[in-house]
Amino acid sequence: MSDFEKAAEGAKMDFSKDMSYGDYLGLDPILNAQHPLSDAHDEMLFIVQHQTSELWMRLAIHELEAARASLVNGELPAAFKMLSRVARIFEQLNSAWDVLRTMTPSEYTAFRPSLGNSSGFQSHQYRLVEFILGNRNSALMKLHKHREEAYARLKAELARPSLYQVAISLLCARFDHASLAGEPGQADWSADIAVQDLWQRVYEDPRAHWDLYELAEKLVDLEDYFRRWRFNHVTTVERIIGFKRGTGGTAGVAYLRKMLEVELFPELWNVRGAL
Fold first, then answer.
1. Which contiguous run of DSSP H or E holds residue 269?
2. What is the pTM of this model?
3. Which pLDDT value is given to residue 5?
4. Cβ neighbours of residue 45 under 8 Å, at least 6 residues apart?
5. Helix (H, G, I), strand (E, B) or coil at 74
6. What is the mean pLDDT of the segment spanning 149-171?
7. Is the dihedral of CA 162, 267, 257, 82 positive or negative?
8. 48, 92, 141, 145: least CB-packed within 10 angstroms?
9. What's 39-121+161-274's CATH class?
10. How far is CA 4 from CA 8, 11, 13, in A?
11. Could you tell me how far CA 213 lies from the centroid of its own chain?
């Protein structure tokens, strides 16, 4: 008996009547969901890259919704774990750009016509992540109106306080301050000096407010990785298509660069200069 056979001895080999690894993960539909529309070799890379990104987004949404619920229930340590996980998810998504950047402009051009008007700009999961975090441009809801379930989920999210609004509510409650969290569907991303002042009180005495101090740093860490993901998206697109318009009709790189200016938690960044 070989060393391999000895090591594998006792392992179950017959799964005709039992659930296997592939059964549990539903691998058949996943691994058969890649359908290139051209003969270009690199179209498979493009499809797998975006499909796996959507799976990571699926997990990010799962974690962000649970983190928000934990904050609402006062279970901050549980929320911290989930927020850390989301930051690591975006680190994983960042690494994926490195794989896509192995594709040259010539290779992308070979199958780009197959995309039609489809674009990552139309990802309802990415939009849901942004809505949960607080970047809520309701005008973009039009993109998802043709998909009833996705549209309904985004609409329902706009009726809830964002993750950051929940964090601000906790901050205000700590200092017996009137709520500064705003309305659930609010899309104003400009910094509020009153919110910044409260965060400053937390940072000036972290021992007294360690839970909020840690919450603030978890949020900053998450946005740090999120910004890196956006930046890598811009550089990848510029490297592959230059300044052409995107397949979905946006200005491409120019649009993506504009999105780099959006801050999810502006007061947490501004307070650093005030300390």
1. helix 266-274
2. 0.92
3. 63
4. 99, 100, 102, 103
5. coil
6. 96
7. negative
8. 145
9. mainly alpha
10. 6, 12, 14
11. 23
Is residue 49 exposed (0-12), middle (13-18) or buried (19+ Cβ within 10 Å)? Answer: middle
Quote the CA–CA distance of 235 and 190 in Å, as a whole number. 26
Range with the poorest average pLDDT among 13-22, 83-92, 224-233: 13-22
Query: What's the rounded Cα separation, in Å, for the pair 138 and 130?
Result: 11
d(CA 8, CA 72): 48
Nearest by Cα to 190 from 130, 255, 275, 269: 269
| pLDDT given for residue 32 in this prediction | 97
User: Do the beta carbons of residue 223 and residue 265 sit within 8 Å?
Assistant: yes
Check whether 153 has a pLDDT greater than 90. Answer: yes
Q: Give mean pLDDT, residues 123-130.
A: 95
All structural domains of the chain with their residue ranges: 39-121+161-274
**Type of residue numbered 134:** G
Predicted confidence (pLDDT) per residue in 190-215, tens digit: 789 999 999 999 999 999 999 999 99
Q: Average pLDDT over the chain, rounded to whole? A: 91
Q: Long-range contacts: 84-91, Cβ < 8 Å, 24+? A: 84/218, 84/221, 86/60, 86/222, 87/218, 87/221, 87/222, 87/224, 87/225, 88/225, 89/56, 89/59, 89/60, 89/63, 90/60, 90/222, 90/225, 90/226, 90/228, 90/229, 91/225, 91/228
